[in-house]
Amino acid sequence: MCGRTFFYETLSTLVDEFGITAPPMPSNWPARYNMPPTLDMPVVRYNAETGQRHLDLLRWGFIPPSSTEGKEAIVNARAETITEKPMFAKSFRARRCLVTPSGFYEWRRTGKTKLPHAIRMASGRAMPMAGIWTAWKRPGTNDWIRTCAVITCGPNALMAAIHDRMPVILDRRDWPRWLGEEPASEAELLGLLRPCPDDWLAVTPLRQTVNDVRNDGPECLLPLEAA
Prior knowledge:
single chain; alpha+beta; five-stranded mixed beta barrel; 12 strands
C-alpha cells in the first residue's frame, strides 16, 4: 500500500514537469516530509472543457459520493478491483489524475521491528502516481470536498523485498491517456496499472524518525547509515 508520503517540490518544478497550463495552485504551500492521509496532496488533472492541465490540492483519502457522514477516507484503490467496486468505478472512468509527491515511505518488517524506507524516482523528479478523485458534498451545506486515492498494484522485484503492494507509477508517455487528453479503452487503461520497472526507483533505508507522524522535517529522510 501507500500510506505515507513526502513532498518538497517547488511550484515551478511541478508546472514544468507536468506541463501545467492553467493557473497553478498557490505558491506558498509548504514542504511536508511526513504526510499522512487526510492532508492535501498536489494533484494533476485535465479539464476537457478548457483543454488544460490543472495543478490542485486535493485531500488524500477518497470519500465516496454516497457517504452520508464523510467519515470514510480510502487512501488506496486496488488496481485489480477498481472497475468492480461501485465507489471507484465512476471515478476510474471519468475522474483520473496524477498524484505527485516527491516519494513515499514503506516499512519492511524484520522480526519485531519495522525499518522505514524512502522510495523516490531515480531521476530525482516528482513521482507520477496514478490516482482517482471525486467530490463529496457535506449534507445540508454547499461545502464540497475534493478527495483522491492512489491506485496500487503488486510490487516489482525491488519493492517486493519491502512490501507486497506499491503505487502505480506512470510513464510520461501514458499521462495523456490516463488524464483523458487522448482516447483510451477501459482495457488500455487497466493495462497501465502495473508495477513500474525497478530502475525507475531509488530506495533508501531510514532512521526511525519518520515513524512518528509528528516529526515533519527534513530529518525524516536521513538515511540509516547517518544514525
